[in-house]
Amino acid sequence: VWGFKDAALVRLAELNPDITNTTVENILLEHVRRCDPQKRQPRLLELYKILPSIQDVNLSYIKLRDLCTPDGDQQFMVRIEWYQWHQFVVLVKLIAAQDGRFYTLLEKSYWLLYVSLCLKHSDIAAKLLREGQTVVLQEINGRDMSCVISSLVQLLMDSSYRTIQGFQNLIQKEWVVLGHPFSDRLGHVSTVKVTERSPLFLLFLDCTWQLLQQFPEAFEFSDVFLITLWDSLFLPIFDTFQFNSETERYQALNAEHVVLRPVWDWEKQFDNKDLAMFTNPLYRPKLQQTVLSVQSNSNSPSSPHIPMTSSLYGTRRADESNGHSVLNGSDKLQLLKNNEQFLEPQCFLRDIELWHQCYFRWMPHLEIKYGGIAQCDLLNRLLANNIYKLRQELGQSVTPDASSEQMDTLEQILSTMIIQTRDPDAASDVSFMISSFFPFSSIVPTAQAVCSELLIASNDINFSHDSMYETSSLND
After folding, report:
1. PROSITE patterns, alphabetically (predicted)?
2. CA 408, 410, 416, 420 torsion: positive or negative?
3. What is the DSSP string of 336-398?
4. Closest Cα to residue 346, out of 211, 219, 222, 217?
5. Is residue 297 part of a domain?
6. Contact call for residues 414 and 378 (beta carbons, < 8 A)
7. Is 22 in contact with 150 (CB distance < 8 Å)?
């Protein structure tokens, strides 16, 4: 499915799981070996032995879902308004009484462990390919975990797949065309057996989000794009994730009453201000061309043609910890090339985070007003916008990229969210009227925020000891 120099990445299914004779399988592996110019034996990774089964992943997801959602809708709706007004105290009580319990249950779900295992074995496969050794990914049907590992390997090794268009191409070829059974795994059809359901695509997106957290400069897309992509799997008006194979898609295409639309036409779903949130403000595109541009203009008094995003970062040093001299010339270019091309993630369980933006976004009482990762993201976008406008005012020629092309719409978003602070001693400061789950939650009304702060600051309020977190699901 992919190659790196003389090494190949191969996906292989068991020819027949009921047959113990491996003669035919060995013949196939011998053909793979002969394709290697040096005739080296390929490295076989039997994914069904080293990674969880689809049933294990589904059970883990169910435990995670129960942990991240309220136990009862009626109780949730009755108490939702109260928790919005007293969210700060509720969070303090949660940290004091339920924090250890929550993480214990999270650990028992094994979801983060499975994310860690997928990253670990993807990293192993990527390193083998970099060493010039062909890797064969084998599982029972070749359409489940092999999709996850194969996609992650290519993300780690090929920077082109870290762009929005490249990432969409990767999903299209590794998941859609090669026949991941979306209909069965996501339960689009009610008659599908429970044992066939498993959110493997969400597992892949979670692994991708982990990489985005560890390498924020390497990806053009943001976590908003990943979450929107996950939501799109459940929109029946798009055919991309609605079938088990290309055969089913072809049959539906020839049915007169079916109109198929690809999910990749984002412009038909969102306007420009929404699409602006798909891009990562910290992304550094075409780093090699940037360095070449710097070198070619280093002796010129005129303004260099440097992409705007590269100005957010200082000059890279050979060893930042001991203050060695700055690299120049071909050494600097080679270092930047190596740093951009390959990613080596931290795969230990302690390095894996919970994807709050995706799993907790429908729980308003867990929102952090005027804070969280979303606040940092908006500030980064504002900084990028200010740099872009400043360089234009200085008359510098800025090479347009994905982020600068949407600066106008981004400025419209920011202008609707900036409010003056209520602190009279810092009247010139501004803050954003957003929560930690932006843009998947509504903007905080100013009046409600003021009243909330007054209530939280009052000493006359007697809070109940009851908490919606004291549910039966936590006691199971």
Report:
1. PPASE_MYOTUBULARIN (PS51339)
2. negative
3. HHHHHH------SGGG----HHHHSTT-GGG--BT-SHHHHHHHHHHHHHHHHHHHHHTT---
4. 211
5. no
6. yes
7. no
CB–CB of 223/380 below 8 Å? Answer: no
How far is the CA of 9 from the CAs of 34, 45, 149, 153, 421, in angstroms? 14, 11, 10, 9, 55
468 assigned to some structural domain: no
Which residue blocks in 190-242 are alpha helix, DSSP H? 200-214, 223-232
pLDDT of the chain, 476 residues: tens digit per residue: 999 999 999 999 987 766 677 788 888 899 999 998 889 999 999 999 999 999 999 999 999 998 887 665 444 444 444 444 444 444 444 444 455 677 888 899 999 999 999 999 999 999 999 999 999 999 989 999 999 999 999 999 999 999 999 999 999 999 999 999 999 999 888 788 889 999 999 999 999 999 999 999 999 999 999 999 999 999 888 889 999 999 998 888 887 677 778 999 998 889 888 888 899 989 987 654 444 444 444 444 444 444 444 434 333 333 444 444 444 555 544 544 555 589 999 999 999 999 988 998 877 777 787 778 888 888 888 888 788 788 888 877 665 554 455 555 666 665 555 544 444 454 444 455 677 888 887 544 443 443 344 333 433 333 333 333 333 333 33
Residue-range definition of the domain harbouring residue 57: 51-74+91-126+143-278
The answer to whether residue 434 is domain-embedded is no
Q: Cα(420)–Cα(426) distance, rounded to whole angstroms?
A: 9
Compute CA distances 259 → 173, 182, 237, 255, 277, whole Å: 22, 19, 8, 8, 29
Identify which of 357, 391, 372, 380 has the alpha carbon closest to the alpha carbon of residue 434.
372
Strands 418-420 and 430-432: antiparallel
pTM (2 d.p.): 0.77
Q: Please say whether the beta carbons of 273 and 409 come within 8 A.
A: yes
117 domain residue, yes or no? yes
Beta strands across the sheet bearing 43-46: 2-4, 7-13, 135-139, 43-46
> What's the structural domain count of the chain?
1
Which residue from 241, 261, 260 is spatially nearest to 251, judged by alpha carbons?
Answer: 260
| Whether the bond into 439 is cis, omega within 30 of 0 | yes
Report how many helices (DSSP H) and strands (DSSP E) the chain contains, helices first.
Answer: 21, 6
Say whether 86 sits in a helix, a strand or coil: coil
